[in-house]
Amino acid sequence: MKSAMEHQARLIFYPAINRASSSFIPSAKALFDLVEAQYVDGLLVWYAGIIEDIDMDSAGQFFDRYASLPVVTIGSQRKGSHDLSIDNYHGSRALIDHLVDVHGCRHIAIIRGPIGHPDADERYRGYADALQSQGLPINPDYIGQALFASNSGAAMSAAITRQWLRNAGRKPDAIVASSDNMALAAIRAIQDHGLHVPDDIAVVGFDDADISLSGIPSVTTIRQPFHEMGYQATRMLLALLGGQSLPEQSVVPAQLLVRESCGCTAKSMVLASLGSGAAHPKPGPGAFDSQQEAIAGGLASIAHHLAIPAEKIENLAKRLQSDLQSGTSHLFLTALKQYLMETPELHIDAMAWQDVISVLRRQILAKPNGEIGLLGETLFHQARVLITEAAHRAYIRHRLKTEHHIEDLHRTAESLITSFGQPLLIETLCRQLPELGFPGFCLSLYDIPEQPTVSSHLIMARHDNQDIDLPPGGLPFPTGQLIPAALPFSQQVTPLVVEPLYFREQQLGILVLEVGPIEGAIYENLRAQISSALRGSQLLQQAQSYTAQLERRVTERTEELTQAVNQLQTEVAERQQAQEALAQERNLLRTLVDSIPDIIYVKDAEGRFILKNETGAHVMGAASAGEVIGKTDFDYYPRELAERFHADDQQVIRSGQPLINREEPGIGPEGKERWILTTKVPLHDSQGKIIGLVGVGRDITERKQVEEELALHRDHLEDLVEQRTAELKAANEQLLVLSNMKDEFVSNVSHELRTPISSITLRHYLAKHHPDQLDEHLDAIKRETDRLARTIEDLLQLSRLDQRRTEFHPVPINLNELVRQYIADRMPIANSKQLTLNFQEEPEISLVLADMGLLGQMLSILLTNAINYTPVGGQVSVKTHTRQGTAKRWVGISISDTGPGIPPDEQSQLFARFFRGSAGRQSGVPGTGLGLAIAREIVKQHAGTMEVESDGVPGHGATFKVWLPSEGGREA
């Protein structure tokens, strides 16, 4: 990035995957397809990342797409391309030679990288050639292979090491790992086996990753200068773009870093080992010049590592010499402090600066008659303290910045979690991304997620801390272009990071960010959060579309059902008229029977058919109506079904009561189950004796299928034939709930008000036309009027509670005293029902600040419900409680009964307005379904909570608990 900005070139980074991730996510591969040759001038590729993410075969196809572009790779060693690689071969040889020459190792094992990987192959070749040049054999049993991937590579390395340690033969005395991650895993496996590194087995690694210094012992390794390689590779690509010619292969020398895991003393300890009191042999001729050259070389190497000019280190040496000669201490420490302040804000390499001090100390001691003295020792100690303090402050700054980024990410995540809907998501991102340090960004969605490279549309853009206005529906552009050419910053040179947006296998779009924070994890976390929010918005849109379709379908089904019911009523009336005419017009029976498409039959008292129309014969599977005469249901139906038909027939014949419009299953001629609407009436002879029955059946299978389909969207329809008026009303109300869920409250109010008004109107009509029953009708009108008044009062109370218009007069209240009063008032009712009404008091209970009237109303509702729903001989228990919460103390009331309980599937609707559970409907207990809603609103206005507990088992009852915040006082 630094090199690109120096040459006014835009760097676009395609990460495709979070390198900290344990496994590659295939959905991220789509990002590689967006790197199109027509939109970039040149390509810089980290080859190891490509083959790890899309495999080596696909890597070849990947590079073929850019044959027309200048391409520079890092670590590929591909023929025909310009590649910059670390000298893996000589780095590996340096490790082997050090183990053999310095530590005398003879049995050296290797955990190599995957075969075919350029770096892995070169490191293994260096290992093999080094053993051969040392005269040592290559033992196939000491060759293992692992992946470079973080987690899987470590696991494979540990398993290989454990296998070597379990072998009965000679164990290796050294292990060469192809990465520091593999080396640390091998060290842990050796230690778990009860051995020590390096005393029993030496271990060395490769790469000089940060983790190489994290373990005990620290890992001897080969340094790969990743930052320098990135800078140099970028300059190579810029040179190619400028028309310069370059060699195909460029090699960066490898550097051996000797540490503890091979058995050596760390370099920093060696540099600091020479003390002022040590005895030194007298140097020979030229020794002083040789020592000074070595020291100067060490300082130059450290200066290069610290990325500061070597003249600054030389200046430190001069100021140190000046302070020692003058007996002062301000020049050297002042210059050191200034250089430390000039280092990157969040990183100070304390070990390298300590090495500077050690080398400067050696420089003084290496001079003829070199003495440090008390001032010198003080200067060196103060310098080391100064370095330590500067590094500690840099660490604190880094930690605070990291914590700040984490807090920003948490805030962004919290905002995105609830940002469902594209407009709200865009608003959230425009607010949160600048807070994370991103000055500009673009969010685009694929037009065809299955073909992401075709085209996209930009839905959000920001540049120079200003939102960019976009046309409705977004700005279309070819996806590989990343940013529409019409945007002002599409031609800027600001570095960009491209993140793929996907949710599992679902491709969504791309996020293009101007480089902000340097922590890579922020980009991956942001990608995941935005992807989840985008997917949530898509699901919300799908749900809204489905809801609209469902509402339209419910409306259509409602109209169809209404027409079907009307038609059914007409058909039933016609059939009843036909049955009456049948008894009077016996001579027209055959004509009438054969003209009706329904099933018509007549049976004698023994169940034998004496008449059957052709339709009925066809349904039974008979060839003709004549074939059926004299036979019974047992000749055509399964025994179980025939026995049921026969039992119904005998019931009609014995009782003389008709069976009207009963829906029952049957079997059609093809053996499939059919639904029949059956009517059976007794058949009388001229003396009025029942001699059989007449039956009519209609195939309602298609209607039942329609009803079953509608049952997916409502609870059920009750007895459509026997209680036609009640069923139609229930069906209309249920369908009204499904099609107008947003207007549920208004619908319920209309129903609750309309029902008593309708009843009053009916009773008024009956009173006028039946004055002999006037008192009965007036009593009914009074009851309905009272019910209407209660409903209206409850509605007004709920309205006042909703709008906070209820007069609220809080006073300190002792719940024990209040509960005792209300229990005493309801004791006569409990005694009349033979109920046991218990009250268990909390001895010392805190006072609550509450409105006496509202709290009493809530308590009255709960007690009345408990008494009403508890059967004779049951028990109602009331208890008061206290508990200490995190920030306040709570006082509670629990009311338990032994009634029918509340089924679990009804408990979520229990506090809904006008909801009455199955227990209320079945028991006949009067009520409007508003009491619990009012009680909970009263509790909420007192900043309390209401809970219900019930397993739904009859007799186990239910428990309602109310918790109110304590006023803070104690009972006197």
Description:
By secondary structure, the chain is an alpha/beta fold. Helices cover 48% and strands 17% of the residues. β13 and β14 (466-467) form a beta hairpin. α15 (373-417) runs parallel beside α17 (520-584). The longest helix is centred in the middle third of the chain and has 65 residues, at 520-584. It is elongated and about 145 Å long. The protein starts with a helix and ends with a strand.
Q: Structural class from helices and strands?
A: alpha/beta
pLDDT averaged over residues: 78
Oligomer: single chain
Q: What helical percentage do the residues reach?
A: 40-55%
Give the CA-based shape: elongated
Q: Uncertain spans, ≥5 residues at pLDDT below 50?
A: 18-24, 275-291, 737-743
Counting DSSP H or I runs of 4 or more residues, the number of helices is 30
Distance between the termini: 75 Å
Count every beta strand, where a strand is a DSSP E run of 2 or more residues: 29
- State Rg: 45 Å
Fraction of residues in β-strands? 15-25%
Major sheet: size, sense and barrel closure? 7 strands, mixed
